Amino acid sequence: VEEVIEQADYLYGSGETEKLYRLLVQHKNSDDAELLWRLARASRDLAQLSSTSAEEKKQLAYGALEYAKKALEKNESNSAAHKWYGICLSDVGDFEGIKTKIGNAFVIKEHFQKAIELNPKDATTIHLIGIWCYTFAEMPWYQRKIAATLFASPPTSTFQEALRYFHMAEEADPNFYSKNLLFLGKTYLKLNNKKMALLWLSKAKEYPAHTEEDKQVGNEELQ
């Protein structure tokens, strides 16, 4: 197992998404949580590629959720398993509509918070809670209305709360992720702080593009 994980981490670092998925999917019946969450991440990364068809994206998203769920069953105290379960559950919500998405939101946040409890230095998970807050702060009124009819106390948040998490993520690991820089800029814009917005948006724009997502962040900057 250790050898497979070592090989997987090398492929992940090299951005070999398809090779990585092919390597890990052979071990989908494994009982090792470390292997399973990596397979969940690889399935999701493959689903995110622009070359992946819509039907494949859906299959991979549901597959990723299964692997993450299995990783959690095998090891409840694995921080990455909680993080990827939250991420994959959020992805599946995209296929199931607003009711499921809002219903899952509480569970997703709980898993992210558990992941940070287990690994307080994980900047990515802190960033994800920021995204969660930003999403609910920005939620349009008609979705809020749906949420209010479905749940006694639907998920809510503020841009200030989102900002706090984005800054915490930056403190945990400065300049770790183009999207965190972008969202710091976007959140400052929402709070009408143009000066700070410009500072962070230009940092996002200058960020070296390693992944397809970095390139998208750069392009979003130019618009």
From TrEMBL:
Keywords: Cytoplasm, Cytoskeleton, Repeat, TPR repeat. GO terms for molecular function: microtubule binding. Its main location: cytoplasm. It is found in: Cytoplasm, Cytoskeleton. Interacts with microtubules. Belongs to the RMDN family. This is Regulator of microtubule dynamics protein 1. It comes from Eolophus roseicapilla. The lineage of its organism: Eukaryota, Metazoa, Chordata, Craniata, Vertebrata.
